[in-house]
Design goal:
This protein is an alpha/beta fold. The chain is 38% helix and 24% strand. The protein has an 8-stranded mixed β-sheet, with helices on both faces. A hairpin with a 7-residue loop joins β6 and β7 (110-116). The chain is globular, with a radius of gyration of 16 Å. The two termini are 18 Å apart. Bound molecules: adenosine-5'-triphosphate and magnesium ion (MG).
Length: 229
């Protein structure tokens, strides 16, 4: 039974810390999907590009997509693959294993309907490699910026992973009082809750997609989600 770990940009600011978090969670065949929100924002700043968020997803024009490539592939992806190997984990960078369609709406070069190549990923797992997937997908006419959480859920469903773990910069999903929720039995309630916002929204949508796609164990940090059965 394989595991998909999604690791977010804030944790990846310190690749060594990210690697030790991954090392603690890993057992058995594992695919890693990484974001890079913080690093992308920093690169956009350096390039003087404005890119706002709608519904927790970044609006991405052509120059913004260049910034995404630079930050995600040039910085986060390469450093993470290297740091994992330096810590003795046989990670291999996989760009091109995820496709997407352009998302309808105000987002520009943003993809949705993410689909992963299961043969590619399963063959790497079979030879005991750890595929590391950046959240940049191949689209019909360009690369597309895809949300890391949606990508992780799509990968988990496609390879029929048993576990999907979202590692982020918070301990878990917090309730209205700011305490981390241990067990969440209704994702829809959380999605409409006033205390859930920003990047947690696409994450919870991804939790829902993974559970309904048959992934048995789904966690955001310490928060565990009760599956359908
Ligand atoms: N109820 C909530 N509980 C916990 N975090 C929440 C909640 N509502 C909003 N958040 C925000 O969601 C953030 C996590 O999502 P974010 O998209 O920033 O991280 P990520 O997905 O790990 O990184 P990346 O987008 O780079 O992959 C937290 O830092 C927190 O600010
Ligand atoms: Mg996010």
């Amino acid at each position: 039974m394989s595991t998909v770990i999604k690791i977010g940009g804030a944790l990846l600011e310190d690749p060594k810390r990210a690697v030790s978090a991954i090392q603690q969670a890993i057992h058995g065949p594992t695919v890693i999907v990484h974001g890079g929100g913080v690093q992308i924002t920093r690169m956009l700043g350096k390039m003087n590009v404005q890119a706002g968020f709608v519904d927790g997803l970044r609006v991405t024009g052509e120059t913004a997509l260049q910034a995404v490539c630079l930050a995600l592939l040039g910085e986060v992806h390469s450093q993470l693959v290297h740091a994992l190997n330096a810590a003795g984990m046989p990670a291999v960078g996989v760009f091109g294993g995820v496709r997407a369609k352009t998302k309808e709406g105000p987002w520009g070069l943003v993809g949705t309907n993410v689909d992963a190549d299961p043969e590619l990923l399963l063959s790497l797992l079979a030879i005991r490699r750890i595929p590391v997937i950046p959240t940049l997908a191949l689209g019909p006419t360009s690369m597309l910026n895809v949300n890391g959480d949606e990508t992780a859920a799509a990968v988990a469903v496609r390879i029929q992973a048993g576990r999907l773990i979202f590692m982020t910069d918070v301990q878990g999903v917090k309730d209205s009082e700011g305490s981390v929720i241990d067990l969440a039995s209704n994702v829809d309630d959380l999605l409409s809750a006033t205390f859930v916002s920003g990047g947690m929204l696409p994450k919870l949508r991804a939790v829902k997609a993974a559970l309904s796609g048959g992934v048995r164990v789904v966690r955001v940090g310490k928060t565990r989600f009760a599956g359908a059965s």
